[in-house]
Amino acid sequence: MKLFFTFLSTFFLVGTIIAQQVTFCEDFEGYQNGNPIAQTSPSWNTWGELMSGTSAPFTDDANVSSVLSSSGINSLYLFSGATQGNQDIILPFGSGTPYTTGTFEFVSNFYVNPSTGAYFNFQADNIPGSTWSLDVKMDLGIIVVENTGSGLNYLTASYPEGVWFELKIIANLTTNNWELFIDNQSLGSFTNTVNQIASLDLYPIIGHQFYVDDVCYTYTPFIPLAYDMAAIDLNMVSNLALTSAPFTVSGDVVSISATTITSLDINYSINGGAPVVDNLSGLNLALFDTLTFNHNIIWNPTTTGSYFVEIWASNLNGNPDMDPSNDYFSDSIHIWNALAVRQPLIETFTSSTCGPCNPANVTAEALFTQNPGKITSIKYQEDFPGSGDPYYTIETGNRRAYYAINSVPRMEIDGGWDQNGNNITQQIIDDYGDELCLIDLSSVYSVTGKTVDIDITIDPLENFNSNNLVVHSAIIEETTYNNIKNNGETQFEHVVKKMVPSDIGTPISNLGATQQVTLNLQHIFQGNYRLPFDASSPINHTIEHSVEDFSNLMVAVWIQDAVTKEVHQSTYATLSSFTPVTYDCINEACVDPGTGNGQYTTLTSCESICISTSVEENSKTIQLIYPNPATDKIYISNLKEDNTLVKIYDINSRLVLENKISNKEYLDISSLAKGVYQIKFEGKKLNKTRKLIKN
């Protein structure tokens, strides 16, 4: 049996309206093993066929298979791998589409090969590629239902790998109520930002291998009854603070009545208790009009805990509701002692060698500037593509490995949202800001020379009985300008310079409600500034640093579950004091007095004077290197021996240049990267070392 496609005529009580129910089922039994389904069946198409009008055989067709089946002997096999490109199979949902009202039910059996995945979507319009109504992604046992175009995740649950299971979606398009079932167990309901449907699209993403069988859908048109109201939403946040009680119960009901509704009762109940009734009159609700209400009788809970809140409309123009099946909307609301305002942590993985990172950073930064005080943003510069970013560090690489990220640009929000940075929206920022938060977090920091002191205060509002909590602290530079490579960016914001004490963080455990925890952290930047040529020679924090301007430092702090990766709270620390790095020339060396009032404001200006002065005072014994700092070549005088061996070592004590030179001859250093070097003179009666700065 190949398929059946029926129209069932159903008569309703309103006037003489007749509705036709559409039913379709496909079990793939009418085909031979290996048959391309779109080429063989009049009901199925390929994406390429519909979009470009190509003729059979279709390059994106999928074959009927007798390897596995949930019934009979056949199913449809979809995969995308090294030897097979992506297939793209379309099942239009019949005449009258797109469906915008009525009830649509889709059900199909799926078999997802272990360690792979499956994907399908509903198209919202008859022309594929215009608007996606719903995306269903299955990967490694996790199913995600979302609208990718809107950036909204509706549901996340699990599915069984390596066995057949039934997946069902029921959409009441009239009331915009969608529900997902696996093996007849509801995984949750949601409203859809694109509340219409036209076709099914089966599309294996690279690496996916799955089978589908017994694909069915049923569409039941909507016919209004004389008196029918549907509750569609409870307009209350799911977490409330007892200190903010009492609360107003608010919600939405929609008229799906053929009769204009002029009066009704709005009801709510708590934990199944007696209805609380509010009488409304003077209304004028036509078909599909929505009434947003604020109930006149407040709800005043006195204890914390979870409450079941249910709303409904009744007594429509003095008449009973004729369809009780859509009357009620309910949700669970939790009352806490107190709540904190969540500040989401946005971690961006990027590189100055990554072309796509440029527009992603532009998009993100435009949003970040519109949300001051609402987010915590930090950037990790990475060691790819190619030779990678000069500001890459071992810590930023470890952080990337922690999230198992293998591409840039990439973004993590609170350890849960993992996407290309181009996909971030204001709605996503707002949604994460609205998430439950039970920790108050504050921090102050001071910068004294090259020393950064960080004080962190944690105020838990509820008990956290976990040994997996970690406090992370990152010293970041608000804007960097020296890191210019090949992707067109001339500056980077919020660049991580050092995680304190490291990327592992500081473990804390068993936070008790109202039990304040304080931490005191410190990091001293060592040595001098160096801009590595690329990520092949990352900064060694024990002897050098990459801070361009110490007055431009910031500190980000967050609390994270090391196992689940969930970030519970984040913040920027507040600067309490700043003492700049300055230098004095002491005993032929440039020294930071630590007071901020040294004679020289930069190391370069100090060394140019300090070295020159020392040379003049000791010209008979000290070798003069000039210019210093230098760009292309240096001259050396006061050499007492011809053909003196000159060796130049980098900051890691690696020999990078060696040559013989006589008095006042020049040495070519153009091949050296910018940075600080040691230059050593070796002769029969000479063995001295001096500092060289390459600009």
Description:
- The chain has 695 residues and is mainly beta.
- It folds into four domains: 3-220, Exo-inulinase, domain 1 (Jelly Rolls, Sandwich), CATH 2.60.120.560; 229-336, Immunoglobulin-like, CATH 2.60.40.10; 352-579, Sandwich (Immunoglobulin-like); 584-694, Immunoglobulin-like (Sandwich).
- The protein contains six helices and 48 strands.
- Strands 1, 2, 4, 5, 7, 12, 13, 14 and 16 form a nine-stranded antiparallel sheet that branches. A seven-stranded antiparallel sheet has the order 3-6-15-8-9-10-11. The protein has a five-stranded mixed sheet with strand order 18-24-23-20-21, with no helix packed on it.
- The chain is globular.
- Residues 1-18 and 613-622 have low confidence and may be disordered.
Element layout with pairings:
Elements: E1 3-11, E2 18-26, H1 37-40, E3 45-46, H2 47-52, E4 63-65, E5 75-79, E6 89-92, E7 103-112, E8 117-123, E9 132-139, E10 142-147, E11 152-158, E12 164-172, E13 177-182, E14 185-190, E15 199-202, E16 209-220, E17 229-234, E18 239-241, E19 250-255, E20 264-270, E21 276-280, E22 290-294, E23 305-314, E24 329-336, E25 345-350, H3 357-368, E26 376-381, H4 394-402, E27 410-413, E28 417-419, H5 426-433, E29 439-448, E30 451-460, E31 469-480, E32 492-500, E33 506-507, E34 517-524, E35 528-529, E36 544-545, E37 553-561, E38 567-572, E39 574-579, E40 584-586, E41 589-591, H6 603-617, E42 624-626, E43 633-637, E44 644-649, E45 655-661, E46 666-668, E47 675-683, E48 686-694
Parallel strand pairs: 18-24, 25-26, 29-39, 35-36
Antiparallel strand pairs: 1-2, 2-16, 3-6, 4-5, 5-16, 6-15, 7-12, 7-16, 8-9, 8-15, 9-10, 10-11, 12-13, 13-14, 17-19, 19-22, 20-21, 20-23, 23-24, 25-27, 27-28, 29-30, 30-34, 31-32, 31-33, 31-37, 37-38, 40-41, 42-43, 43-46, 44-45, 44-47, 47-48
